[in-house]
Design brief:
single chain; alpha/beta; Alkaline Phosphatase, subunit A; eleven-stranded mixed beta sheet; four-stranded antiparallel beta sheet; 28% helix; binds 2-acetamido-2-deoxy-beta-D-glucopyranose
Amino acid sequence: MPSIFRLSTAGLILLSAFQQSVQAMGLRRGQENIVVIMTDDQDARLGSLDVQTYIQRELIAKGLSLTNHFATVAQCCPSRTSWLRGQAAHNTNLTLVTPPGGGYDKFVATGQDEDYLPHWLKAAGYTTEYIGKLMNGYSLATYSPKPKGWDYTDILVGPYTYEFNNVVMSENGERPVYYHGYHQTDIIRAKALDRLQRLIEKDEPYYIQIAPTAPHQQSDGPAVPCVRHMWTHLDARAPRIPNFNPKDEFQNQKPSWLRDTPLLNQSVLEFTDWQYLSRIQSLVGIDEMVEDVVELLREKGQLDNTYIIYTTDNGFHIGNHRQVGGKGLPYIEDVNIPMIIRGPGIPINVSSTIPSTHVDMAPTFLDIASVPERKYPPFFDGRSLLPEWKAAGNLSSKASSGKEIINIEFWGRVNNAGAPDYMIPSPIYAYKTLRIVGEQSSWLYSRWCDGNATELYNTIDDPYELTNLALSPAPEHEKLMARLNGLLLVTKSCSQESCRNPWTVLQADYESSTSAGKMFTNLEEALDTRYDDFFRNLPPVGFQKCMNYLFTPNEGPFYPPESISLGSEYRRPTDNFPAFATNSTFTPGNGAREGTAAQRHATLAEILKRSRSLTDAEMGTSIICGPPDYCGNVYITGIRVE
Ligand SMILES: *[C@@H]1O[C@H](CO)[C@@H](O)[C@H](O)[C@H]1NC(C)=O
Ligand SMILES: *[C@@H]1O[C@H](CO)[C@@H](O)[C@H](O)[C@H]1NC(C)=O
Ligand SMILES: *[C@@H]1O[C@H](CO)[C@@H](O)[C@H](O)[C@H]1NC(C)=O
Ligand SMILES: *[C@@H]1O[C@H](CO)[C@@H](O)[C@H](O)[C@H]1NC(C)=O
Ligand SMILES: *[C@@H]1O[C@H](CO)[C@@H](O)[C@H](O)[C@H]1NC(C)=O
Ligand SMILES: *[C@@H]1O[C@H](CO)[C@@H](O)[C@H](O)[C@H]1NC(C)=O
């Protein structure tokens, strides 16, 4: 027997020293570290992950990929807020990237920054840090004080958030710093590695979120990759899948403004392919970032007690349904997003169809942190995914009732990203959408604000969402739509248990209206003809008109009536909150495109040498920017505002 196992006094001392060093290495049970890498606007359906070879090899092949993970609102700021608060957008009421619908000002004004993920993890003993893009509206006017809850922040500051060669960030709410001569991806990588080193040295579990801007477009065109990647993947072009620039026969089945989009011509298609290539190339830099992060964790012996999560805020379309490139549609390209997990107890090289959303992430993180469920905030609309992640390798474990129902919502307009010459801004629109993501049946059902237009797609038979069955519905589709309308009536204003299992609400009403005992707890059961009248008599989901924020009187009826509170008991009121902008002078930025091969391993020390604080003129003076006329994320003559 080796001497270490002999229970002599010396051995005990050795063992306890070993335990201490295990502690020092962070190998404690039940409070694993969490490293999140969240990109901006990355698709799951158009092949963007294919070029990320390190992620393929070290995360996908050594972890779990969730093929049915969804953003419940296909816009950055609302989706990120849902991640951070564990609530649907209709309950955070952050429904757009700019005021009055959303933005960082609204997040703060409503007090939601006093009660969100970093506070909860901190209370559980975690160190919490954030590097990169937080959300729209964190800007020269709002950077200080730093966002609450985080032990450390170093956040991209608007109007520079989307500039790849003109990077301005604020560390802990200090005066913003301009980083000359480096590409944003290299800067964020170096900063993330520096923070991770420090976190590893501390004896506390940690949550760090690393959020680069790629592959989001710049303000004046597609994403700008690191120079060293501009010769890679030159043959990449936007996938010509069946819903790419479809014929009139299909386009005519869409709601009105989409229906009126002309067929994309040759010059638009060329732009689209350039945009696709730029995105792909920008993601190669992100792959390197992930590589360095994971290799650092490996080198420090942290892979076995760290969850590494790779995801994005929302998806992206390019040419699909004739939209040049952007997000904000209910279709699969915009809402189905990458979600890859590697970590302790997570199955290896498994792809799972278990449905889930970003609303589920906050409870999942608290579960990882061993926070008991009774200590969760009362307002979570999702549920922890951790047990399902761990069981995902077990083919016989199936998604149970309610989980296959995905509520998706939107207010705003499609922003045909970075396409100045082909910018066809859509009118303002909104929709309420349900996705049923079942093994046997799978549907996309939407009600739009204009004329209450309806869509129904069978997403098993018609995965590209081209044949709208609501236009001249067969009797079985009428019957189905009555059920989906009933569900959507609940999910569009659901909270907590009614989000996790909307059938319970309808069930209770059905039971009280009849003496019948039989319950429906899933779509198949609800389709029984005995419930025809019940569902037919429910009011239709609809809007009075199209608006780019959630105005309650516009969205009735509410079901049940008390659901009209829409999360307001858990935040301050959101009417007429103040928003700010500055009249700053824009810094010129890098003369050349950066991200050379020589900068591949640039250290933070090197990067800091060429950095400087913004000047007073570059800082500008804060101006109040509404209410009532919010400046928004727009250019005003002589003033650049975000
Ligand atoms: C991962 O799974 C895929 C599909 O099941 C298989 O083709 C591949 O060889 C596996 N890779 C590894 C590294 O096990
Ligand atoms: C897989 O799931 C089934 C059904 O829940 C269960 O009986 C079985 O023990 C599980 N197997 C493993 C390896 O977890
Ligand atoms: C192609 O379409 C765009 C956007 O509709 C338009 O601006 C452009 O003039 C068209 N180009 C040609 C060659 O028709
Ligand atoms: C749309 O539906 C709402 C709610 O049912 C209704 O009040 C409104 O009149 C409808 N609008 C149109 C144009 O049908
Ligand atoms: C949501 O925000 C809008 C815009 O600030 C406001 O008008 C509306 O009353 C809010 N709705 C709720 C339910 O808080
Ligand atoms: C910004 O506004 C302040 C206060 O109104 C003014 O003093 C300053 O000159 C303005 N700066 C620019 C660049 O317009």
